[in-house]
Amino acid sequence: MTDPIQHIQSLLPPRNTRRDTGEAYAPANIALCKYWGKRDTRLKLPVTGSLSVSLGAHGTRMTLRRAEADALTLNGEAVAPDSRTFRRLFAFLDLIRDPAHRLAIESHNTIPIAAGLASSASAFACAVKALESLYAWNLPPQLRSILARLGSGSASRSVFEGFVEWHAGSSPDGMDSFAEPLAPVWPEFRIGILTVSEAPKPVGSTEAMERTVRTAPLYEAWPKQVEHDLPRIRRAVLDHDFITLGETAEHNALAMHATMIGSWPPVIYWLPETTAHLHSVHRLRAEGLPVFATLDAGPNLKLLYTAEHEADVLRNFPMLIQIDQNPTP
Ligand code: DP6
Asked: Is the whole model's pTM more than 0.85, yes or no?
């Protein structure tokens, strides 16, 4: 069998070398049914499918310029060539760019810093789109998603806007593991971010995921959880059934965290304030306010609610950062 990455590279069109710059934007995304666990770490093939909603104007904007040497600035600050961020991004670009091309990259995160959402998903999706712009390509959307996946699994979803589903696929070369748009943004649906800590995470998501799959006996239950949750969430998005969506998304996130806590050494992202906020969400629900929570690989919460209850949610969580999910114009 040809190497799957070489096969993907063979599908890339010829590169237009007349352009000097490429520019693009990609939104961050929050998974409502999570991606947790890989069946192939090199190709970033997931054990299960997942489903997310994109964060509109909150994401990554990137400009690539042909240059003498590789360089990267992040929000205006130079990133050291020996840093992990630099090496990871350029190793990824090496999969796609002309090996002779050096690039100077300016990357801007438009996610509020205080939201504590460092987004590798939007960064890798944006890098693919910026290379497309540099080389004057118009890639088939599935190939664009597959390329972004090679950078970070969740980036496969960030090449699209609105509600997006990433199909797990079953082929060993991953050519059937790509994301597709499911539905546009639902105007009444709201997401807010409750920041508990902006400190760097003790364990990155890639490592936490790998450790869970390797050491947590509870992980065996995860594909069954997704088998139950993914079709329900998909249906709820299509039907605008907020309660089913909120209940299933919260259950899914908590079940994912249960698998991490059950790994060894344990991965416990929650801080005392994380638990306190979760209890507040549950108390408010018991009092009749339809608000739900989801969490990723970190201590911060994302609250899910609808426009109708926005004022009540904000009154109870005055520090909530509301995310406008409207796609970028
Ligand atoms: C908890 O996409 O960051 O946010 O593929 O190793 O780069 P890698 O992992 P990454 O993991 C995201 C995990 C998550 C859930 C999700 O976004 O679906």
From this structure: yes
